[in-house]
Design goal:
The chain is of the alpha+beta class. Helices cover about 45% and strands about 20% of the residues. It contains 4 helices and 3 strands; from the N terminus they run βααββαα. A 3-stranded mixed sheet has the order 1-2-3.
Length: about 80
């Protein structure tokens, strides 16, 4: 992701506008991330993706049961220790 300061963004708005058509541009203020400029198409994609997400508690009972019955692959069982 391209990154620029708010001052630089103001001076070169057109340049960053074109860059944002290809990839998001992060704009910082006082060294901290403040804004992200992106194309309308990218924004639409993100908002559509957010609408497709579901809360675990809203999952169908068949999905919840399948997760409950699932078993961990023994090769990665050691990762359980990281959760403690």
């Amino acid at each position: 992701m391209k990154r620029t300061t708010a001052t630089e963004f103001q001076r070169k708005f057109g340049e960053f506008q074109h860059k944002a058509q290809r990839e998001p541009v992060e704009i910082t203020r006082h060294g901290r991330r403040d804004l992200v400029l992106m194309s309308a198409e990218h924004y639409d994609w993100l908002t559509a993706a957010a609408r497709r997400t579901y809360r675990t508690e809203d999952a169908a009972s068949v999905v919840i049961e399948a997760v409950r019955r699932a078993e961990m692959d023994p090769e990665i069982a050691h990762l359980d220790e990281l959760m403690k």
